[in-house]
Amino acid sequence: MGLAVSGGPDSMALLALAQEMLGDGIEVATVDHGLRPEAAEECAVVARVCAERNIRCRVLTVRVEQGNVQDRARAARYAALGKWARERELAALATAHHADDQAETLLMRLNRGGGLGGLAGIRSSTRIKGCGVPVVRPLLGFRKQELRDLVERLRIPFVEDPSNRDERYDRVRIRRALEEADWIDPVALARSAAHLEEADQALQIVADQVWEDAAVIGDARVAVPVGPTRDTSARLIARAVAILGGEISHGEVAAFLKAANGRSNIAGVLVEQRGNSFICTPEPPRRSG
Fold this sequence. Notes:
Number of domains: 2
CATH class of the largest domain: Alpha Beta
Strand order of the largest sheet: 3-2-1-4-6-5
Number of strands: 11
Strand content: 15-25%
CATH superfamily of the largest domain: HUPs
Distance between the termini: 57 Å
CATH topology of the largest domain: Rossmann fold
């Protein structure tokens, strides 16, 4: 099992708990994004703790492209961690997301009008684009303070990331609001997200079965049936678009189905409803002149 350890109290708790349960069956990687001068020392803290505990540790250095820093850093981090895990022949990558993270994610997505897939929040087990191994989150049932108490009790050193207090980020503002609303139970919100994840999985099973029974894949053409529900149709079209080289979320396809008049281009793919089928083909080149 590979562990993604940033040096914060949550990930240091993951390290301690995983070693207690799996012993020598774990390896650690920590990522230096190069965005802050303190990052190298934070990675060094992780490496020192691993050395003291006889855990194999690798420091991964990544370059973050310009743009949305948080999104680009996340993509670079998971790409590096996935490459490391594959090289080490590790079965999965564990991260230290916890119940408070889940509650923040659920509220952020509710605030943006997210659909069922988004409201399922942080998945207990998932595949992330660019990361070549499954990602698991074994700490979703723990509160942030519980994990901090654990590492303090074990006297494991940890670091504090100043970006966790930067209110320019939506997540930090949601975090502050949750801290002030003591009537909200993050563990209960995390349970709700888990229920929504189960519902999303059930709907995906239905869509997968319809796909296996009726999807027709040809040369530069994919035909899928109109599903029994709009949700099923959205999942089928998203899969067809992916096969044709496009990239679109379930929510974006659902919005397209609500607004489209039987024919539209989405993510570089022309989608046409013909009777009881959606015909998906690459978008034709636009005429110039």
